[in-house]
Specification:
By secondary structure, the chain is mainly α. About 65% of the residues lie in helices and about 5% in strands. Among the domains are: about 1-55, no CATH class; about 75-265, no CATH class. It has helices at about 5-15, 15-25, 40-55, 60-65, 65-100, 120-125, 125-165, 170-190, 215-265, 270-290, 295, 320-325, and strands spanning about 190-200, 205-215. Strand 1 (about 190-200) and strand 2 (about 205-215) form a beta hairpin. The chain is elongated.
Length: about 350
């Protein structure tokens, strides 16, 4: 590359990013006659355009603007960004409504409930009342359809209006006032004095004859003016790209949610065998709760004859067991006190008599 000149140092201080782009393109930046050639100017414009379109955010784009114009142009560029976002929102709304219209549907605000006419009981069943209700329903539906059609056309008109404001010439008109304010302020700052030297009594004296505009400032402001539509269009494309990225993210989230719903539905399919076991276990627990307390811990062991221990024969009392003889004969008769027969027994009298 050529040695650094004063012009290059000036350009590097004003816009380092622009200087870097021009250096990559190997385009001369010195203030000489060759730099004013049409081909060179076109190459410089193309290099700056590539630089602006390399920015992937609004702030990144603003940082590429030459320093004197950066802050004044930020607000009008921000307004263009807001217009682009409104255009995207309105366009999406129109697409949504158009889809509903093709399906024979309307948004909720255009589905107002039909007014009801109150008739007497006798007249409500007449043919005149039925015809009146049908006419009212038809006119109400016609009104809703017409209102929705007008609303759709109004939204489309808004999209067209914003789109017209985002065209290159419209963008230039929106950005030019801020540009002119910067030019008015800096044109004085970047003037060069014209000095005339004269010799008076052997001494050289300098006289200010006038002012001339700095050629580098002239070149810079001309380039920024030609870049204004490019800056505005790049802001629009940044907004469009951001909206597209959000749309892709939303579609991915919806697809992921659908996959999760399908997997959850498959995982929660009822197992009827397990349900039957659960019901049987629940019934068993309920029966155990309602059983008497003295039977909860009792075990019923079945014998070979099918009878449990709880259903065995009634046991005889100890008193009855004592009355039975060991040999299995008749029970002995109990005697009275001291082994004497009971009073009144005939056999007890006249013992030993025939």
């Amino acid at each position: 590359m050529a040695p650094t000149t004063t012009a290059e140092s000036y350009r590097r201080a004003v816009s380092p990013a622009a200087m870097a782009a021009l250096a990559i393109a190997d385009i001369p930046v010195a203030a000489d006659a060759d730099a004013t050639a049409a081909s060179t100017i076109e190459a410089r414009n193309a290099a700056r355009s590539r630089l602006y379109y390399s920015a992937d955010s609004f702030d990144g784009l603003v940082d590429l603007i030459p320093g004197d114009f950066r802050v004044p142009l930020r607000e009008p560029l921000k307004a263009i960004l807001s217009s682009a976002e409104r255009q995207i929102a309105a366009r999406n709304l129109v697409a949504k409504w158009e889809k509903l219209r093709l399906q024979g549907k309307r948004p909720d605000p255009w589905n107002a409930k039909q007014p009801v006419i109150q008739f007497s009981k006798d007249y409500a069943e007449s043919a005149e009342a039925t015809a009146a209700r049908n006419s009212l329903a038809a006119k109400h539906e016609e009104y809703l359809a017409s209102a929705f059609s007008d609303a759709l056309a109004a939204q489309q008109g808004q999209v067209d209006s914003i789109h017209a404001d985002l065209q290159p010439m419209a963008l230039l008109r929106r950005l030019k006032p801020a540009y002119l304010r910067v030019v008015d302020v800096n044109s004085i700052k970047y003037r060069r004095p014209k000095l005339v030297s004269t010799v008076v009594d052997g001494r050289v004296e300098h006289t200010l004859e006038g002012w001339s505009e700095d050629p580098e400032w002239t070149r810079l402001r001309g380039e920024v003016l030609s870049d204004l539509p490019i800056l505005g269009l790049r802001v629009v494309t940044i907004a469009e790209t951001a909206a597209l990225v959000e749309q892709i993210k939303t579609e991915k989230k919806k697809a992921l949610q659908r996959d999760i719903d399908v997997e959850m539905a498959d995982a929660t399919q009822p197992d009827f065998r397990n349900i039957a076991e659960m019901v049987a276990e629940a019934v068993k627990k309920e029966v155990a709760k309602k059983a008497p307390a003295n039977l909860k811990n009792h075990k019923f062991n079945k014998r070979k004859d099918g009878k449990g221990e709880g259903s065995s024969k009634k046991k005889s009392s100890p008193s009855n067991d004592n009355r039975k003889p060991q040999g299995g004969g008749k029970p002995r008769r109990s005697k009275g006190r001291a082994g004497k027969p009971a009073p009144g027994n005939a056999k007890g009298k006249g013992k030993g008599k025939a």
